[in-house]
Amino acid sequence: MIRTVTPADTPAVVALAVDAGLFTADDAGIVEQMMADHFTTGADEGHTCLVDEHDGQPVAVAYYQPRPATDRTWELTMIGVARDHHRHGLGARLLHAVETDLRARDQRLLLVETSATPAFAAARAFYLACGYHEEARVRDYYQAGDDMVLFRKALTAP
């Protein structure tokens, strides 16, 4: 069941983000802070976090937020599925829920950035399979030799 995240979900979301390989255990504090910010001011600023719950536990998470100084452009900040739930379509289902939510709010674009390294090849293939188009690459963005790939999907008809 896809639903809006609650504060009680925070420990599970942090563990999920680490399990999905989005963050290392050393960087789990980044996710904790993102969730704390979400519940204090982020939701008021339009930030949205959805989880896909199975057997009472979040097994997939998506976090998205409006891009400042743009006309209805959003950024998918985080999407991940617990490793033991991979290859069951949960990521695509959750991404579709994000897109449906944004379309219902008459939003225009959804952007996603990821790494160009081989470790993120599956993520890039996922976005392409979900109808995203590679829009840009920024060389050495994350660090020397690690380019950022920007994907784009129009949410409204041209």
From TrEMBL:
GO MF annotation list: acyltransferase activity, transferring groups other than amino-acyl groups
Entry keywords, A to Z: Acyltransferase, Ribonucleoprotein, Ribosomal protein, Transferase
N-acetyltransferase domain boundaries: 1-156
GO cellular component: ribosome
UniProt KW Phosphoprotein keyword: no
Keyword Metal-binding carried by entry: no
PANTHER family hit by this protein: AMINOALKYLPHOSPHONATE N-ACETYLTRANSFERASE-RELATED, AMINOALKYLPHOSPHONATE N-ACETYLTRANSFERASE-RELATED-RELATED
UniProt protein name: Ribosomal protein S18 acetylase RimI
Protein source organism: Micromonospora auratinigra
